[in-house]
Amino acid sequence: MNMLASRGQLRASFIRWALFTVPLIVLLGFLAGQSSGPDTAWFANLTKPGIYPPPAAFGIVWTILYVVIGLALALVCAAWGARGRTLALAVFAVHFAFNLAWTPVFFGMQQIAGGLLVIGLVAVTLVAVIVLFWRVRRLAGALLLPYLAWVLFAFALNYQFLQLNPEGEGTAGNGETRDGAVERVRIGG
């Protein structure tokens, strides 16, 4: 028997998915942000671009965006049987892995150029996600447009950090930073 779901069934499916995806996306974003962040001597010593917003803005904007991303994801997850749903979800998973990788690369590894590469991958994969989500549920794709605007702003901001701090690359991998906050001396071979 081939039946379409009623509006009530579709709404219930979306709500169930949203109750899972929204907290999941917010939690993952929060955990990535907690792994490393701007509260380091390295970041404090970087020259900040003129477009750098107040630090509190990042937490507010990302929280709102993560909720909206979770809702868009729930719309696609609830679209059982929609053509392209599986591909859209797979590309989203790859995209979101890039999203979560930016903070550890930029702040944790203190790699401004690496962060620029990662945020570039976030932007490119996000465009693909928007197109694929749009094909499954137009509203899901449209919900991601403010996220794209913020990612493009973040790309410009990261680029300006690189331009203003050409010697700003840290070497967090071996514990040393350009500001000399940690120094190690190796004696012997």
Estimated helix fraction = 55-70%
The count of DSSP E runs of length 2 or more, i.e. the number of strands, is 0
**Can you identify the CATH class?**
Mainly Alpha
Low-confidence runs of at least 5 consecutive residues: 173-186
Give the full name of the CATH homologous superfamily. Answer: TspO/MBR protein
Could you characterize what this model shows?
The chain is mostly helical. It contains 7 helices and no strands. Helix 1 packs parallel to helix 4 and helix 4 packs antiparallel against helix 5. It starts with 6 loop residues before the first helix and ends in a 25-residue tail after the last helix. About 7% of the residues have low confidence.
In short:
The chain has helices at residues 7-35, 41-44, 55-77, 85-108, 112-136, 138-143, 145-164. The chain is mostly helical.
Features:
189 residues; elongated; mainly alpha; Ferritin; 7 helices
Write the layout of secondary structure elements.
Layout: H1 7-35, H2 41-44, H3 55-77, H4 85-108, H5 112-136, H6 138-143, H7 145-164
Helix pairs in contact: 1-3, 1-4, 4-5, 5-7
